[in-house]
Amino acid sequence: MAALDSLSLFTGLGLSEHKARETLKNTALSAQLREAATQAQQTLGSTIDKATGTLLYGLASRLRDPRRLSFLVSYIANKKIHTELQLSAALEYVRSHPLDPINTEDFEQECGVGVMVTPEQIEEAVEAAINRHQPQLLEERYRFNMGLLMGEARAVLKWADGRMIKHEVDMQVLHLLGPKTETDLEKKPKVSKARPEEKDRRTAKDLMENGEAADQGLSLMEQLRGEALKFHKPGENYKTPGYVTTPHTMDLLKQHLEITGGQVRTRFPPEPNGILHIGHAKAINFNFGYAKANNGICFLRFDDTNPEKEEARFFTAICDMVSWLGYTPYKVTYASDYFDQLYAWAMELIHRGQAYVCHQRGEELKGHNSLPSPWRDRPIEESLLLFEAMRKGKFAEGEATLRMKLVMEDGKMDPVAYRVKYTPHHRTGDTWCIYPTYDYTHCLCDSIEHITHSLCTKEFQARRSSYFWLCNALDVYCPVQWEYGRLNLHYAVVSKRKILQLVAAGAVRDWDDPRLFTLTALRRRGFPPEAINNFCARVGVTVAQTTMEPHLLEACVRDVLNDTAPRAMAVLEPLQVIITNFPAIKSLDIQVPNFPADETKGFHQVPFGPMVFIERTDFKEEPEPGYKRLAWGQPVGLRHTGYVIELQNVFKGPTGCVESLEVTCRQADAGEKPKAFIHWVSQPLTCEIRLYERLFQHKNPEDPAEVPGGFLSDLNLASLQVVEAALVDCSVALAKPFDKFQFERLGYFSVDPDSCQGQLVFNRTVTLKEDPGKV
């Protein structure tokens, strides 16, 4: 009967039956709306009209401090607050003024109570806005952005009815321009998009400026500094929309400021159960970058609460990657540092009647519509004894959990705080056999470390209510959780489980296979950390989840390597060339600039002798039209030598394959310019070169609609090509793992850790921007 009464009450407010039933599923919302409607009826003494009902629903769904319910209901019922704009202002006011009593005069002024906006005032404001933009209006007619006019009128008349402003704008624009013509009704012509191959030739700056990523040219520090993100100031947590205050909030914030001195504090809290990937790079840049940009500190805190999945190598790799990206934590901490305190708080939570020991099994707890626990109302003393028994190892895994008494934003009821696990912990050994969950640990560790801004990805938004609830239930300092969008890439898989499947299937070697988008893989492939940070900056600190094209990241890589990778020459498919009239008795030493565009950065020396090797593709006996490299009657220049070679003889093996060439050479004079200059090597080193392409064939390999057979069926079998006998000039002989070079006309390459004495191995990081068929 109670549910039917509430359903009737809610539909009486103007809610559709479907909306009313959905509201009833949310216990907290339905209770607050029921109370608001009851109070309004008592004030009105009659039924509630739909406009008032809509405002009451908006109040109940958005008010985080129930103490203010009666105060705000009275203003709505008495029509002192009668628009959505006023309600939003009222909610903002009570949120930012948590202390009693409320200054009524100040409140009413901030919420526009008693302010009357006449039709004449609206007419004048709209007319003034139209006069300011009249030339542009006459030129663009109905393609002009009418929202600009409404916005300017609204700025003058803050409390005006938005519908009345829109109606007045429509009328005055019609009077000025007349009815729409056929030209006005035509769609705007679409701006033609660059072809993919043209897009790839642009720099990262070009790509971002043309809207393919949204940084507006700002550096990461500029995006994160001060007011740029509209975050709260330290100590002003209560001004954040949705932040829940209690009678203890202001005292706790005062103590917090005494400890931190008003300093910004963030944390990067990875789980040590896998290798970080490109998405984590955004999280690292956001957390460490926000602290750095605002003269704060950032903790690196390992969320080591699941000993079954944690390995020492993951701790080391995570620290290495944070350092590699250029950040130094203020302090490295572990959730396990706080196990004693977390346990004591769990006992306190039980004491306060906010947690209980439950015996439902894991499969019974799954999903959002699980059955309520039959042990939810067990006596406090009984839960205390049972929780201590869990601590002492008297329950098997899965036999008992500690659950918190709350309903989360996604409808999940009573999340688990502690569970039994008998796996030894990497730091605490066998000291504990119960371990806290993320939902319990995360906010309390943030509180212990006095984090000011708890930055996390959007999927944790559903846990925000439990975050605030738990801190407030224990009367401890409550930080603010802010969410941002995840960063994903097309043609990539980053989940730990799926990468393990790729390794098991032999599709990749390990977590650092250069075809993956883990950070260790990107480092091994030769991506500079500056390029990854630049990419994160250019993507921007977005709230929406973003899935970017890999070529945007590669453009950032080229931008950095173009300025930092010295040039060298290498030949992937060697063709021997004998210079029959070599101009010296012995080899010549050729000075090659490390960076041809800036010779102040120095030179390296390479030998030039009568035998050189060129790319097999740089010679054709029967060239097609437009071919510009070596052919009969078509000489080419050898880069950096000042010599031109001309074909004299072609030598072939038994199969008809060209094995070597004989050429003559002459010095290039000022009047002679060959059609092409090709790279070459002489007295070279033999090396292995690994050429990488995309690991997957489709943009979204995990999407069943795009790849019905699953991501393992989408592998690109040509994603790795190994050139075992490539030749490289001797200037790279002393190169160490991760040293980077531009091999002229081929791309950017990095020395792989598999290299050993006398046998270098190179990974192709990215190709050059230019079409490799051009010189």
TrEMBL record:
GO biological process: glutaminyl-tRNA aminoacylation
Record's keyword terms, sorted: Acetylation, Aminoacyl-tRNA synthetase, ATP-binding, Cytoplasm, Ligase, Nucleotide-binding, Phosphoprotein, Protein biosynthesis
InterPro entries cross-referenced by the UniProt entry: aa-tRNA-synth_I_CS, Gln-tRNA-synth, Gln-tRNA-synth_Ib_RNA-bd_2, Gln-tRNA-synth_Ib_RNA-bd_N, Gln-tRNA-synth_Ib_RNA-bd_N_1, Gln-tRNA-synth_Ib_RNA-bd_N_2, Gln/Glu-tRNA_Ligase, Glu/Gln-tRNA-synth
Domain Glutaminyl-tRNA synthetase class Ib non-specific RNA-binding: 7-162, 165-254
Places the protein is found: Cytoplasm, Cytosol
Biased composition range(s): Basic and acidic residues: 181-208
EC code(s) of this entry: 6.1.1.18
A Pfam family that the UniProt record links to this protein: tRNA_synt_1c_R1
Domain Glutamyl/glutaminyl-tRNA synthetase class Ib anti-codon binding: 565-664
Coiled coil: none
Residue numbers spanned by region Disordered: 180-211
GO molecular function term, any single one: ATP binding
The keyword Translocase belongs to this UniProt entry's keyword annotation: no
GO annotation, cellular component aspect: aminoacyl-tRNA synthetase multienzyme complex; cytosol
Gene3D superfamilies (UniProt xref): 1.10.10.2420, Glutaminyl-tRNA synthetase, non-specific RNA binding region part 1, domain 1, HUPs, Ribosomal Protein L25, Chain P
Top-tier EC class: ligase
Glutamyl/glutaminyl-tRNA synthetase class Ib catalytic domain mapped to chain residues: 263-562
Domain tRNA synthetases class I (E and Q) anti-codon binding: 677-752
Reaction catalyzed: tRNA(Gln) + L-glutamine + ATP = L-glutaminyl-tRNA(Gln) + AMP + diphosphate
Similarity section: Belongs to the class-I aminoacyl-tRNA synthetase family.
Function according to Swiss-Prot or TrEMBL: Glutamine--tRNA ligase. Plays a critical role in brain development.
Description of how the protein assembles with itself and partners: Monomer. Part of a multisubunit complex that groups tRNA ligases for Arg (RARS1), Asp (DARS1), Gln (QARS1), Ile (IARS1), Leu (LARS1), Lys (KARS1), Met (MARS1) the bifunctional ligase for Glu and Pro (EPRS1) and the auxiliary subunits AIMP1/p43, AIMP2/p38 and EEF1E1/p18. Interacts with RARS1. Part of a complex composed of RARS1, QARS1 and AIMP1.
Protein's recorded name: Glutamine--tRNA ligase
Gene name of this polypeptide: QARS1
